[in-house]
Amino acid sequence: MPITLQDVAQKAGVSIKTVSRVVNEEKNVAEETRHQVLQTIQELGYVPHVQAQRLASGKTRSIVLHFPLSDPGLFSNLIGMDFITGVALAAAKEDYYFSLMTGSLTSGGLIKLCRGAQADGLILMQITVQDWRVEFLRENKFPFVMHGRCANNDGLSFIDLDFEHAMMEAYAHLTSLGHQHIGFLTYPEEWRVKGLGPAVHTLQGFRAAVKKFNVTSPYRECQQTVERAYWATRSLLKENPRITAMVTVHNTQAVGAITALQELNRKVPEDCSIVGVLVGNEGELIIPPLTSIEYSSHEIGHQVAEMLIRKIKETSPGPEQILVRPELKLRRSTAPAPR
Amino acid sequence: MPITLQDVAQKAGVSIKTVSRVVNEEKNVAEETRHQVLQTIQELGYVPHVQAQRLASGKTRSIVLHFPLSDPGLFSNLIGMDFITGVALAAAKEDYYFSLMTGSLTSGGLIKLCRGAQADGLILMQITVQDWRVEFLRENKFPFVMHGRCANNDGLSFIDLDFEHAMMEAYAHLTSLGHQHIGFLTYPEEWRVKGLGPAVHTLQGFRAAVKKFNVTSPYRECQQTVERAYWATRSLLKENPRITAMVTVHNTQAVGAITALQELNRKVPEDCSIVGVLVGNEGELIIPPLTSIEYSSHEIGHQVAEMLIRKIKETSPGPEQILVRPELKLRRSTAPAPR
DNA sequence: CTGAAAGCGCTTACAG
DNA sequence: CTGAAAGCGCTTACAG
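Above: the input entities. Below: the structure tokens describing the complete assembly.
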């Protein structure tokens, strides 16, 4: 029932190779022949069989994004969605198929992906400082790019956020408003222990910022839930009543902090300012709208996919490494320090 | 370089058909032979070539979800993410690959998808009352299921939300608290005009609820942004000062409404209650936490994928039609009517 | 500019 | 329980 190259060739009175040339827009086809074949394709409603193309050519024209959900709180869902659609749109633009893998990636799964010719390349997330997947893919010479970075990135392509810079921006903004005592809720301890980039780099940036701006800044490593952030904030304020500003790294943390502040009769931002670091664009869904150091997760997804496709096509000169600088977005949760 | 069936067969001293049998766990292989082959596979690190399997068998073992982003506000991103991960996990569980298509689906795109053998089945979203895609797929006998439903669903498989029931629940809850004047922000006018399910069914449910509970309930069709909801709420309250409760159908609307109420010095929930209808589980990220009629978008994604796979395998007896009843989740944004 | 042949790595259908 | 043959629908490499 389905129409094949064979059918088209027969009806058009040419060889299948010629039809193939037309379909793939190769040069060296007489204009007249081209027209004739094109018309036959139209009449018959011919559509190339993707799987056959893939087997014969050895290329799948597809990329896969491994988006681990083992730890669902790891990325804000909203940010995740924007990222995924960024990847999807970039892939579509380059005429690549896009597959999504969730769940944890075992070494067996990775072997299947590479050797089974499921895709031409892979996007990796949740990169740890030392990452076995990176070594594996490198050895197998399978094209991949990272959203994140390792300790040693020689020869690797990645795009990552400049967490250090983000923290600098947050503290620069708050100190410029006169805040000297700033509470900080950061990523959970396990993240840091696992060597996950956001936790590691954010803490480094935090230390550098505290030093540079010479502020008092007690902090808590905190799960990304409203509840945990609520209690962490209460604990911080109890021990450090002079705090006039808070920095958080997740929207749930911001909500928990605001809730705690309100209960303590501290108005935001009059009595206490609050800044979200790398919370995506969710800040405007918080009341009051959250001043944030933010970036476009969609844009990053788009870029990482394009980077991978360049790598697959080998049109990139060498490894590409991009560090995105998030920017301060002023909303209504920050104000000059009281007094 | 890559290991093929041929290589395994040769080394194990059997035919490739036998190796194929072992790989596919078919019956009728001598236990001894099986062992021998399995060991050789292990030694050689053989992994089946997915594209070859697909071409030869005529099955791709993959499904595609068409998630249109042409109208990015159409679904809340958070809900979308949960839905997608639900689909992804269900597909993985059944050992199916999962591809995501975004962007608008042209008739050409749909033809390619079906005839090009890209996937074994398709999940459709944003179903309109009359949907050309449904007709097309039906005629081409391509397996698909819908997240949503048409006007006439004879012979079709779908899973959808019971919007009518959701509205009933919202009004039942508010009237039980003594509210008689209830403002309502619903989906934008264009949605209704296009015949999109949520808009159409919600409005039907709204009318039924107003009648049943005999309340005054002015409403506005409203874009899903904080800003629009803010102004719509102000307009509603200006014209109807007796309103003591609001119903919204999106988290941005809830945020806009709360902001407007606060500016008018109406405390939530003491002076004005607010209920979110079908806002996913985002209600807890709002201050105060939003009482909602909600459901698990993840669960729906999971179910719709399973439904499709049953359809592909033809293990389902006939068309399956599921209407999910969302449930009231009490949080802190509703209270008895003032006085 | 065009085509006949071989082959991509599997599965299907049949035979024994 | 096992295997030899044909074929899935294309592309590659070569020849003319």
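Note for the figure: Chain A has 13 helices and twelve strands.
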